[in-house]
Specification:
The protein is α+β, with helices and mostly antiparallel strands. The protein folds into 2 domains: 9-90, no CATH class; 99-171, no CATH class. Helix content is 32%, strand content 21%. It contains 7 helices and 11 strands. It has helices spanning 9-13, 34-42, 52-56, 93-97, 118-125, 129-144, 146-153; strands at 20-21, 31-32, 62-63, 67-69, 72-74, 78-79, 84-85, 100-105, 108-114, 160-161, 166-171. Strands 10-8-9-11 form a 4-stranded mixed β-sheet, with helices on one face. A hairpin with a 4-residue loop joins strand 6 and strand 7 (84-85). The two termini are 19 Å apart. Bound molecules: iron/sulfur cluster (2 copies). One iron/sulfur cluster binds at residues 7, 11-12, 15, 17-18, 98-99, 117-119.
């Protein structure tokens, strides 16, 4: 079935927000499952783009090693000249889910949305929040499906502690 896209690509292609990080240990650096990382390695990407933990134990969740670009850091799969992801069809579930996120607050798992994504911001500013809510309903069903729960179970560390600036939408029970 596959996860549906929420943000129209024309918004992302002119946005300067995703795939860039303020430091090398940012919690926003995407999590890959071992399977997603292995698929990219099989396509010729070097093992060195992934962090040390994965190099030592391929069964763990893995993050990419970001690289410095100008005065910030970028994902090694990001092409800053074209402003796009080089591995777009193979990008991890963590990236495919965004601007929605899974966060844990007081032991409860929530689906949230990052209102700082310009597309989400636009929907709220133009009284189209229903669009976010309807997609949240779709995501709740997707996450409850065998495919969706498998995505979450193979990416346990993508569930972040509640960072405070995320709008919580739904409680999730897997
Ligand atoms: S912040 Fe939103 S609009 Fe910008 S690149 Fe990310 S998903 Fe696309
Ligand atoms: S994998 Fe692609 S979409 Fe995800 S952070 Fe890297 S460049 Fe961006």
């Amino acid at each position: 079935m596959g996860l549906r896209e929420f943000v129209p690509s024309e918004w992302c292609l002119r946005c300067q927000r995703c795939c860039r990080f303020s430091n090398q240990v940012s919690p926003w650096i995407p999590v890959f499952s071992a399977k997603e990382a292995e698929e990219l390695i099989a396509r010729g990407y070097p093992l060195a783009v992934f962090n040390k933990a994965f190099n030592e134990d391929p069964s763990v969740d893995v993050r990419v090693k970001v690289k410095q670009y100008r005065d910030y850091y970028i994902c090694p799969f990001f092409d800053p000249e074209k402003n796009c992801c080089e591995v777009y069809p193979l990008r991890p579930f963590d990236c495919r889910l965004y601007p929605f996120l899974l966060v844990r607050r007081d032991g409860v798992l929530y689906l949230g949305v990052d209102k700082e994504c310009p597309f989400v911001e636009h929907l709220f500013e133009t009284e189209q929040e229903w669009h976010v809510q309807r997609f949240a309903d779709y995501l709740v069903d997707y996450l409850a499906s065998p495919e969706g729960s498998d995505e979450v179970n193979t990416h346990p560390s993508m569930i972040a502690p509640y960072p405070g600036n995320i709008m919580l939408l739904r409680e999730i029970r897997l």
